[in-house]
Amino acid sequence: MTTIQDKIKQLIDLRVQAKLGGGEKRIDAQHQKGKQTARERIEMLLDDGSFEEYDMFVTHRCTNFDMDKTKFLGDGVVTGQGTIDGRLVFVFAQDFTVFGGALSETLALKICKVMDKALIAGAPVIGLNDSGGARIQEGVTSLAGYADIFERNILASGVIPQISAIFGPCAGGAVYSPALTDFIIMAENTSYMFVTGPKVVKTVTGEDITTEDLGGAGVHSSKSGVSHFRVETEEEGILIIRKLLSYLPSNNLEDAPIIKSTDPINRLEDKLNSIIPDNPNQPYNVIEIIESIVDYGEFLEIHRHFAKNIVVGFCRMDGQPVGVIANQPNFLAGVLDINASRKAARFVRFCDCFNIPILTLVDVPGFLPGSSQEYGGIIIHGAKLLFAYGEATVPKVTVTLRKSYGGAHDVMSCKQLRGDNNYAWPSAQIAVMGASGAIEVLRGKEIEKLPSDEEKAKFIADKVEEYNETFANPYQAAAFGYIDDVIEPRNTRFRVIRAFNSLRTKKVVNPPKKHSNIPL
Hints:
17% strand
């Protein structure tokens, strides 16, 4: 007769078996590749002792190709809930030691269950991806499993934060779940993402390319923009996830978490009074300005290696999380191009989804000219950023540091796009275009009539100076009320924080609609 003690022992033995995944040999093989196991990753991610696992005893149902003779408890994914800094999160981690983490019908059901629970609870969901793709033996049920996951990604979008870490292969249909989430982290040398692998590429196009060059962390963090963070180790990736979540609310009905700050609101930064070069064509690093005005100089930059002409990321100001968008004069003079527009638009929309105020620092000479930009659709992509700012209802504070020319002025959170507080430094230049270009347009015929190059040069120089006196300052825009105030640079932190504090009770509702039709 089986006693209760026998049954308890059986339970304990089954738990031990489940925690071994595909077995010791496969775990050792995982470690030899420089990778952690699914359970080790979860242990690093969550607060000690907080993990509660679901569906530990699930096994696959497939009988094709003798699959019924090989089963593992958990079937290739570890799912459950836990806490990060005491806040509830839901997590799934694909287990490469079990069938290479390949997606089966039951594996998909486990992921769907944890995503459903996250949506019901209003808590973030984190996916740790390490999978060889669809489980071929299961055929269409595996494909259906992917689609079930995609649908949940879509329904959860803008409701709860979704974060994906790629800690191994992620190919074929598997790439679209991370692509539907808010942030993607990739590890160097051990992770890759692509729709079709190098062998298929070679067969179809004749192109000979390595896995790393086709879909590695370096490619997706710098060229495609698919990955928001590139990390050297999985441990670094886990720390990024924890840091990222510290800035985010658990869901769209909550405000981002405010913490007590001991960094004085009225801290003056004298270096800001001299950080803008006298020469308007000389670059500077806008991150120095960001770090000077935020709490403790802490700024979590996102998409650091992609579209470097614009900077986006999270900080705190007086303890309140703030999303920062800033043109970067240190790269391509801070010009807006296709990638910069996409990068910033996506970030603005994320902040608006999750009630995070937006600070915009402007130094933009315009949109990047050229046929490659026009053929690539700069009109549509630039409109994405315009649309994102105009649609956003969160508090928006804009500070024009230097150049703000042409259509790019409108796009960068101007007053007419419902900017709440629009400030400018005395160095601000707000105009349709720069002085030289404007003089060529306005005085071109007069210049042509002048007999000598010396006279032309003097005429142009005089008119440029006249133009600059009129437009290379913020006071004309201030005269129309488009700039609320011209502020001393060293006082920027205080003015921005006071603006955000006054906007904490802001209530703006867009017209009723099913959803917007943002230019895609």
